[in-house]
Amino acid sequence: MGPGRAHAALQETWHLQKMKALLIMNPGSRSGRGKKSWASIESRLREAGADLRCAHTGGPDDACKLARAAADRDTIVAVGGDGTINGVLDGLLQSRRTDIRMGVIYTGTSPDFCRFNNIPTKPEAAMRTLLAGHSSPRDAARINYRDSSGNIVTAHFACSCNIGLGAAVARRANSTRRYLGDACGTGLAVLRALAAKEPADLELELDGEKLTLPAADNLTVAKNPYIASGLKLKLDLAPADGRLWALGVHNKSRAGLLALVPGFYSGEVVSAPGVFLRGCHRLKVRASVPREVEFDGDPRGFLPAEIELLPKAFELISDPL
């Protein structure tokens, strides 16, 4: 049986079975407001006949641990924001189970994963999508980076990774968005990060080709063109097209960086003069000074890092692409 027919047979099996779902729910999403919808989510899914188990996260690594340890479930549903989605994705890929689908009921603030993957962001619409059960394979990326003690950490992402300014923006935005809102909080974080910028030379290896990105302020490695809170890249990307893009901003003054900001909101920064852009499947990144690494919305660790595309790595429930 070929891959296409095998996928179709697996889809039919999932559709005919009663959904056995683990809901991994983040009480801190949307500054605690997301959990107001929990009761209606559970009630709606149980009324539809789903066999539910619910688990609540209490720390940043809990979603990953819960997804990795899930047993007797055929669907794991992230109920939260992009951080919860990333944790569920990471745990699912670390478990190496191919018989589990991933679903999302979004209760966060910046729905970049959902927008790219055609998942409704309103809970009621998301539940209809989940219960309809249409799924298809999606790409992900595996990343090896260093923690604060220098230990190698392996994780996964499905949106983007930023090295340099992007990590500083994420750190600041995560603390200001709860007071200023998503767009304003992220915009202020961008301006504060630009004011404090400290460029560094990045040593890259893209699909075996070595090169230097001098005086780099940020390197974005994108599987998803939506970076965060309205920031985006106008790239030819699809959720399962087997491609990553690397975009580097370097040799720019503060005024030069500020001039690029509108292009990050329109997506046109990809064609701005002096911006590095290259498609790739695997890359390595080093720097002679500490550089922070962020992916899927949260600062994680430091360089050196290695990133590799994982084609069609997981099965995601969504509306048809």
Topology, element by element:
Blueprint: H1 3-16, E1 20-25, H2 38-47, E2 51-56, H3 62-68, E3 75-80, H4 82-95, E4 101-106, H5 112-117, H6 123-132, E5 135-146, E6 152-157, E7 160-164, H7 165-180, H8 182-195, E8 200-206, E9 209-222, E10 226-228, E11 231-232, E12 244-250, H9 254-266, E13 276-280, E14 282-287, E15 292-295, E16 298-317
Parallel strand pairs: 1-2, 1-3, 3-4, 4-16
Antiparallel strand pairs: 5-6, 5-16, 7-9, 7-15, 8-9, 8-14, 9-12, 10-11, 12-13, 14-16, 15-16
Helix pairs in contact: 3-4, 7-8
Key structural traits:
Tumour Suppressor Smad4, Rossmann fold, six-stranded antiparallel barrel, about 30% helix, 9 helices, two-stranded antiparallel sheet, about 325 residues, alpha+beta
CATH topology description of the largest domain: Tumour Suppressor Smad4
CATH class of the largest domain: Mainly Beta
Shape: globular
Named at the architecture level, the CATH assignment of the largest domain is Sandwich
Q: Kindly name the structural category.
A: alpha+beta
Explain what this protein looks like in three dimensions:
This protein has helices at residues 3-16, 38-47, 62-68, 82-95, 112-117, 123-132, 165-180, 182-195, 254-266; strands at 20-25, 51-56, 75-80, 101-106, 135-146, 152-157, 160-164, 200-206, 209-222, 226-228, 231-232, 244-250, 276-280, 282-287, 292-295, 298-317. It contains 9 helices and 16 strands. The protein has 321 residues and is an alpha+beta fold. The protein folds into 2 domains: 3-133, 3-Layer(aba) Sandwich (Rossmann fold); 141-311, Tumour Suppressor Smad4 (Sandwich), CATH 2.60.200.40. Mean pLDDT is 90; it is low at 8-16. α3 packs parallel to α4 (82-95) and α7 runs antiparallel to α8 (182-195). Helices cover 32% and strands 36% of the residues. The protein starts with a helix and ends with a strand. A hairpin with a 2-residue loop joins β8 (200-206) and β9. The longest helix is centred in the middle third of the chain and has 16 residues, at 165-180. The strands form 2 sheets. It has a 6-stranded antiparallel barrel with strand order 7-9-8-14-16-15. The protein has a two-stranded antiparallel sheet with strand order 10-11.
